Amino acid sequence: MKNRTLYLGLIIIAALLVVMAAAPQIAPHDPEAQDLYHVLEGPSEKHLLGTDDVGRDLLSRVITGTRPTLLIGVLSTLFSGIIGVGLGLVAGYKGGAIDMAVMRVTDAFMSLPVLVVTLALVAIFGSGMQSVIIAITLVNWTGFARIVRGEVLHTREFVYVEAARAMGASGLRIIFYHLLPNVMGPIIVTASIAIGGNIMIESAVSFLGLGAQPPLSTWGNELRIGYAYLEVVPLFSIAPGLLITLTVLAFNFIGDGLRDAFDPRISQTFNKSKEK
Amino acid sequence: MTMQPLLQVKAISKEFPVYQGQVFKKKTYVTQAVKSVSFDIFKGETFGLVGESGCGKTTVCRAILQLTPLTSGAVFYKGNCLSGMAKKELRKVRRHMQIVYQDPFASLNPRTKVRDIIGEPLVIHKLTQNRSEYKDRVEAMMTMVSLNPAISGRYPHEFSGGQRQRISIARALTVNPDFLVLDEPVSSLDVSIQAQIINLLEEIREKFSLTYLFIAHDLAVVHHISKRVAVMYAGEIVEIADRQNLYGNPSHPYTKALLAALPIPDPQASYKDENAMLQGGNGVMEHHAGCKFYVRCPARRHLCQVKKPVLKKVNQHDHMMACHLGES
Q1: What percentage of residues in chain B have a pLDDT greater than 90?
Q2: A21 to A47, A212, B68: CA distances (angstroms)
């Protein structure tokens, strides 16, 4: 049962990746071609999802929006995960002054508002995806750091960690061989939730004109603009909204599945029940 | 002729500070977990350390293995002081001193396959050249502790307590240590399994001429395996002697009480058993100048409350005791 949801998640993500790679071929129209005689139209044979406020084909825009959306969601989560997990492991394992220092830095970063950081980065690097990814990473790693530190504080008290020390294991070995695998569960859950959240942050940033620049489309962007026309063309924001939901759901399925796969106690119960 | 002991424990003490207050933490007092404990362990012998829960047995073994910093005192292994040793040096020495823990459910990493648990010391100390040598070594260890090498791909949760303890023992022995600390290795096991593990440990000790520090709270088990025995009470050693002397001729009132508390396998006899049970707290938190055992001691007198007894010989054997009993 558990593994079935993992596969479902993987299938959805795989489909999205195919769409992402083949976007120019799949999109029925040029996503940036305006047609001011046909703005805000409902679904028709020519435009399966209708058109937006400047007459661009919505289906094509949603399809081409897959790439920047997924890139921002996944990359910002990946980078913030690497930074946060690394610092959380060190803080939790070392404790004392190092822990104190890392956690105060974390607190400082937590107080940064994403939008202000993005503004600053846009001023430095110019607007675009890289600024958004860096901004989200700078703010989001704190969540990973705090969760991992908390889990490590709990895990390092287990006798097997002391046993490793008694055997002569180095600090690095204990951190990566004994602690990391045992705190993997919460990390995966946090990451799968963060991907969805980051897609939403991107939409907020785009709305202010700081993220992906028009005419480039992202799902968050479409959702925000379409919101204004919800009563005229509901699909304008519902279509990208459903896609965001589906993506977040798929990552959650994968997260759940991976967490169980990483835990031999659960994955083996599953295998045994399958044998029966 | 005096033989050089394999391990010397010299007056080790360990204090844990107790803090009070939510915001402004203030050190109110210290708990003396271990107080000036000294003993020597000679090559090839099994040294038993007994005492009730919380008397500092485990702290002593953690201190010996340098897993907790000492407040004072020092530990010498083959004449080298471990206490101030550089981390790198210490890691090398750790290869020769291994430990088997009490709780076989907590001492094995749940995410690691059995073969990697047993082989981990080999990886840490880089003792095998290639994968097949590693595999052979792990399988040899498994066979030695009567585990089927075919199940080396399983995870710890698939094993029973006794099997897990065998895994622990195999892990400790993969790197050919000289000295093994056994921290209550059988107290969480069934009685029938206890005997198997004890016999296995004895067998292994003879085969590899190992030296054991065997910690337990079960006097019967210690009697079976140990050559010399030390009795701890509230962080201090109160009596230390050969097995025959300690069990045949217990001198300290606490040792007597412990031996009297051994269960008698006959309900009728045990019903009539009139040996006084120990009552009250163990006195660790008591702060008076005298003997820690004062509050529970059946033979106490005024001297015991004001003057601390020191370990000294009670007869021609190396039988030592810390008690005012027999003094004028």
Answers
A1: 43
A2: 22, 18, 56
A167 interfaces chain B, CB cutoff of 8 Å: yes
B246: left (phi over 0), alpha (psi -120 to 50) or beta: alpha
The CATH class of A2-16+56-275 is: mainly alpha
| Shortest distance, CA A34 to any CA of chain B (angstroms) | 56
Q: Which residues of A touch B125 (CB under 8 A)?
A: 168
Does the pLDDT at position B282 exceed 80? no
Q: What confidence tens digit (pLDDT) does each residue in B39-51 have?
A: 999 998 999 999 8
ipTM for the assembly: 0.84
Q: Which of B94, B124, B155 sits opposite A173 (nearest CB)?
A: B124
pLDDT at B287 over 80: no
CA distance linking residue A104 with residue A63, whole number of Å: 42
Q: Give the mean pLDDT of A172-200.
A: 89
User: Does B182 map to a domain?
Assistant: no
Q: What residues in B contact A162, CB-CB < 8 Å?
A: 62, 67
Q: Is B65 on the interface with A (CB under 8 A)?
A: yes
For residue B312, give its domain range.
249-262+276-328
Residue A94 near chain B (CB below 8 Å):
no
Question: Is B106 an interface residue toward A (CB < 8 Å)?
Answer: yes
DSSP state of A178: I
Please state, rounded to an integer, the average pLDDT across all residues of chain A. Answer: 86
Q: Please count the structural domains in chain B.
A: 1
The 10s digit of each residue's pLDDT in A99-140 is: 999 999 999 999 988 888 888 888 888 877 888 899 999 989
Which amino acid does the sequence have at B292?
K
Residue B327, in any domain of the structure: yes
Q: Name residue B232's beta-bridge partners.
A: B237
Domain residue limits, chain A: 2-16+56-275
User: How many residues in total does chain A contain?
Assistant: 276
Interface residue B250 vs chain A (CB under 8 A): no
Reported confidence tier of residue A275, pLDDT bands at 50, 70, 90: very low
Q: How far apart are the first and last CA of chain B?
A: 34
C-beta of residue A66 within 8 angstroms of C-beta of residue A23: yes
Question: Is B305 domain-assigned?
Answer: yes
B95 contacts in chain A (CB < 8 Å): 168
